[in-house]
């Protein structure tokens, strides 16, 4: 089966310098992850795209959070899936990172998308799927598409059910297959799965991003985004080998490195 054409939003991250670096969870090394403060820092650092993690509260409201539990990045405790949106809204999501961020709230998806749009940022929404990837995809997409004008975003996930649900419910929204080398992916598997789910890109971890894999994915018409890279030398090597964009905790450092990288034709 032929590879699907790249959706417009995926094509946008191929060449211009500021589109080649995606802030990881905002700018995770410099501001608390998955917060509005992180979005503001990423925008100040000059990126055009940020990646964030999306999950549902107990009452089905999408929020930005990476872990299944609240302890590491908020003042709360226990599973996010057991907390209501009202309870999550009272939590401090900044103090753990540093006193300058004390009182930073947990970011909810709709305000985060509006804030990002106001800052000129597009967003990669990573759907942290368990326990129900399809429900998360439906809810997150409904929230995002209800905003007018619709913000620039795409969805990514490790969870194939979430990507399939996104394909069914909002086929116009670009999708990216997330892939971890620890899961035993081959290049052929990545291509077949991405094509089946109508994904225009594969977001692969650094261990998977070998020159051969990058080349094969390019030949299949898939954009290649590599996570999570914080060393400029490694970023330069990946761009030279064909990576379209890199997700980084330190986006400003990698943006500076793009001045030494020659975009591929």
From TrEMBL:
Keyword Cell division in annotation: no
Keywords on record: Hydrolase
UniProt key word Zinc: no
Molecular function terms, GO-annotated: glycerophosphodiester phosphodiesterase activity
Entry-linked Pfam families: GDPD
Cleavable signal peptide: none
Domain of life, per lineage: Bacteria
Ranges where the GP-PDE domain occurs: 19-258
EC number: 3.1.4.46
InterPro entries, A to Z: GP_PDE_dom (IPR030395), PLC-like_Pdiesterase_TIM-brl (IPR017946)
GO biological process per UniProt: lipid metabolic process
UniProt xrefs under PANTHER family: GLYCEROPHOSPHODIESTER PHOSPHODIESTERASE, CYTOPLASMIC (PTHR46211:SF1), GLYCEROPHOSPHORYL DIESTER PHOSPHODIESTERASE (PTHR46211)
Protein name, per record: Glycerophosphodiester phosphodiesterase
Organism: Pararhodospirillum photometricum DSM 122
């Amino acid at each position: 089966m032929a590879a699907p054409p790249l959706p417009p939003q995926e094509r946008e991250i191929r060449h211009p310098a500021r589109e080649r670096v995606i802030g990881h969870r905002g700018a995770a090394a410099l501001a608390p992850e998955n917060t509005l403060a992180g979005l503001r820092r990423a925008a100040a650092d000059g990126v055009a795209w940020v990646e964030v993690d999306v999950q549902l509260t107990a009452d089905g409201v999408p929020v930005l959070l990476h872990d299944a539990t609240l302890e590491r990045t908020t003042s709360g405790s226990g599973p996010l899936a057991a907390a209501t949106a009202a309870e999550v809204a009272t939590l401090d999501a900044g103090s753990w990172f540093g006193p300058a961020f004390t009182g930073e709230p947990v970011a909810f998806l709709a305000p985060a998308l509006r804030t990002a749009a106001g800052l000129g940022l597009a967003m990669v929404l990573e759907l942290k799927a368990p326990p129900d990837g399809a429900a998360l995809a439906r809810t997150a997409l409904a929230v995002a598409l209800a905003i007018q004008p619709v913000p620039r975003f795409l969805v990514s996930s490790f969870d194939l059910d979430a990507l399939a649900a996104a394909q069914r419910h909002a086929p116009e929204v670009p999708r990216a297959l997330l892939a971890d080398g620890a899961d035993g992916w081959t290049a052929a598997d990545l291509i077949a799965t991405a094509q089946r789910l109508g994904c225009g890109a594969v977001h692969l971890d650094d261990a998977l991003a070998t020159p051969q894999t990058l080349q094969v994915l390019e030949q299949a018409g898939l954009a290649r985004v590599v996570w999570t890279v914080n060393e400029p030398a490694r970023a330069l090597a990946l761009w030279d080998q064909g990576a379209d964009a890199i997700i980084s905790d330190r986006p400003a450092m990698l943006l500076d490195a793009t001045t030494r990288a020659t975009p591929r034709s």
